[in-house]
Design brief:
Blueprint (H helix, E strand, L loop, with lengths): L4 E4 L2 E3 L2 E3 L4 E2 L3 E2 L4 E3 L2 E4 L3 E4 L7 H11 L7 E3 L5 H4 L2 H7 L4 E4 L1 H11 L5 E3 L5 E3 L4 E6 L9 E5 L4 E5 L19 H16 L3 H11 L6 E4 L9 H12 L4 E9 L4 H15 L4 E6 L5 H10 E8 L1 E2 L2 E2 L1 H13 L5 E8 L5 H12 L2 E2 L4 E4 L4 H20 L1
Parallel strand pairs: 8-9, 9-10, 10-11, 15-16, 17-18, 17-19, 19-22, 22-23, 22-24
Antiparallel strand pairs: 1-2, 2-7, 3-6, 4-5, 7-8, 12-13, 13-14, 14-15, 20-21
The structure holds MU-OXO-diiron.
The site of MU-OXO-diiron has 8 residues, from helix 2.
């Protein structure tokens, strides 16, 4: 999109779509691209909210110039310093050294650290306000949603919450800026993938942030990624609340690592058991094929998880080892876990899964199934039993 898009009188989206970057943070696939949303508010004073990733400055400046004379911009409010939003700051300041930056103490530190920018920062306290004329911002410090400097800016007259990464999702906007202009089902799942991979580790801090925001009359949520939630901002607010409290849906994910389909057969028996127990939402993933970001997203969504691995170098199969490491890092709570696996001549995989089970604090559903070489009828029967038992725990919970 080459034009600014009005959210309301004098408030415009001036973001960009990125369909060139394959991996967000050099980690997370972007099959549908991503947007870097930025905004401008034109009043007696004019304020920018965030910038865009380096390389998109021309597009951003062009949109600003369609709203106002660039010389007339007074403030740059920085809600978040990750370079997908701050990457154009140094060039912007080179063009407009008079711009006053609005941030907080942590923003100042990161500005100096990443860009060598010092001075000209107005540090706002949590709850402090800034008037532009008719419009007035109230700032909320929301540390670790996603970085320590993260804050949100609530414009009180319009009821628009400029939320930084929070409530945002992967996916380019492709012409639609608002939730009622896009295929919202794509953004619902990509918002969960963003949350589970980028923000979810900091769930206690998300809860702290939501507690600060809960009494505001929020009419729209304008995140730095994905659509502006104007028709149903409560949807995404409540989703963030559920996800960060680890409220799960009654479904299960079965994830396996298998070189020659032996552990895969065990996974399929577990999945069949889940279906027999009445669980309709069952997702089976081959960890060597499906990117881990989708695995984490499904695990965040569903109550049940069955992990199965063959043994490789007397350890977990490498993609499963990576998954277990990430699960330790993400600190999800309250899942029901089943484990199974195989080995050829010495164990290793199931032993590590058992260690993870103890560390996780999740409820382990028996039986743990371990088989040597190919699973026979007994082992597959035990996997079926594991799936049924896991299914019964999920459906009753
Ligand atoms: Fe979209 Fe944490 O950056």
């Amino acid at each position: 999109m080459h034009e600014p898009v009005a959210l309301t009188d004098g408030v415009y989206w001036i973001g960009v779509d990125d369909r060139e970057t394959a991996l967000f943070e050099a980690l997370w696939p972007l099959p549908e691209g991503v947007s870097y949303n930025a905004y401008i508010i034109k009043d007696e004073k004019t304020a920018l909210i965030d910038t865009v990733k380096r390389g998109y400055l021309d597009d951003y400046l062009d949109k600003i110039s369609q709203v106002c004379d660039c010389q007339a911009v007074d403030y740059l409010i920085i809600n978040h310093m990750e370079p997908d939003h701050s990457g154009s700051i140094r060039q912007l300041l080179a063009l407009h050294p008079e711009l006053k930056i609005v941030g907080n103490k942590k923003t100042t530190e990161l500005l100096a650290g990443y860009y060598g920018v010092t001075g000209n920062v107005i540090e706002v306290a949590d709850g402090e306000e800034l008037s532009l004329g008719k419009r007035c911002f109230k700032f909320f410090h929301t540390p670790m949603v996603h970085w320590p400097e993260t804050m949100m800016s609530f414009e009180q007259q319009s009821g628009i919450l400029f939320s930084g990464d929070a409530f945002g999702g992967f996916g380019a906007l492709d012409g639609g800026v608002f939730d009622d202009e896009v295929d919202v089902s794509l953004f619902e799942s990509e918002t969960l993938r963003y949350f589970s991979n980028i923000v979810g580790k900091f769930s206690p801090m998300v809860q702290n942030a939501l507690a600060k925001l809960k009494d505001l009359e929020i009419k729209s949520i304008a995140s730095t990624h994905g659509p502006v939630w104007r028709s149903d901002p409560k949807y995404v607010f409540n989703a963030y609340d559920r996800w960060s409290r680890h409220v799960t849906e009654p479904g299960a994910v079965v994830i396996y690592g298998s070189m020659y389909a032996n552990t895969q057969r065990m996974a399929e028996a577990v999945a069949r058991g889940l279906a027999l127990a009445g669980v309709k939402q069952v997702k089976v993933h081959n960890s060597a094929v499906t990117h881990i970001s989708y695995l984490l997203s499904d695990i965040w969504r569903y109550r049940g998880l069955a992990l199965g691995s063959c043994t490789y170098d007397v350890q977990l199969f490498p993609p499963m080892r990576h998954l277990v490491q990430m699960l330790k890092s993400k600190q999800m709570k309250g899942r029901n876990l089943g484990i199974f696996g195989s080995y050829g001549w010495s164990g290793g995989a199931v032993k590590e899964l058992k260690e993870f089970s103890e560390l996780s604090g999740w409820e382990l559903v028996e039986p743990v199934v371990e088989t040597r070489c190919a699973p026979g009828r007994d082992a597959l029967g035990m996997c079926l039993e594991l799936g049924e038992k896991l299914g019964r725990v999920i459906t009753k919970g």
